[in-house]
Amino acid sequence: MPRLAYLGPEGTFTEEALRLLDPAAERLPCANVPAALNAVRTGDADGAVVPLENSIEGAITTTLDEFAWGDPLLINAELLLPVQFSLLARPDTEIRHIKRVYTHPAATTQCRAFLSRELPDAVVVAAPSTAAAAQEVSLPGSPYDAAIAARIAGEHYGLVELAADIGDRSDTVTRFVKVGRPGPLPEATGSDRTTLVVFLADDHPGALLEMLTEFSVRGVNLTRIESRPTGDGIGRYFFHFDFEGHIADARVGEAIAGLHRICGEVRFLGSYPRADGIAPQIKRGTSDPEFAEAGDWLARIRAGRV
Fold it and tell me: Is 268:198 a contact under the CB 8 Å cutoff?
């Protein structure tokens, strides 16, 4: 039975994602994303489930940064989880009496309209996670009147749901990834995603265009690109890429090899099945058979068989 770390405590959306990705796994709640990933690096866990991006708020920058530094980790699966927030409080609490709300900053961002409309005078305080907020509100003498969290967190900690589905959008989705230590990659399925972290060799005009060209000329479609500061000074960044395809695909392998030639460092974070099942559109001249035929043709030319 694998042991999987996750952003805890019990009742987070991350725990829900873990249960869907690996129902039989032993669950190890951690205080934050770095702790969950470090548990994998140290061997305290066989893998971890962490949030990577949200359809409203965008990338989870803590996760992006953790993947860029430290011992390498590989993504081996992903999950798209619909996210619905509830306003949770101790029994007998009335919404008109709520003055202090505790929740994760991402939940605050995604519930702005509800907070402005229903709790305009309430103070919202940042929590480490939505479940940690629910756990704190459940304690006797808590300074907080309510939490914004998943409904399951209320069930865990004995809170009642004062309002359901309070997010600004009902179609909000968070993408979670399951990661482990380096090892064999998932087989290519024809509907895959590959993730990289790329560091520039040096800062010069056109450096980003040079990287993007490696994808473009091989017909590799990017699904996400993020820049993050390296910490070495203002204006110095590294890049996260998600793109369609598996490293076993010729076009993907050649694009990654091209980046390796021109960049300071390329950190491969995995090739794995896409949760949405979408297959890429292969541009003419970029399929595996066409790459193989071109290689055979070049070999004949080099051998003088023109």
Answer: no
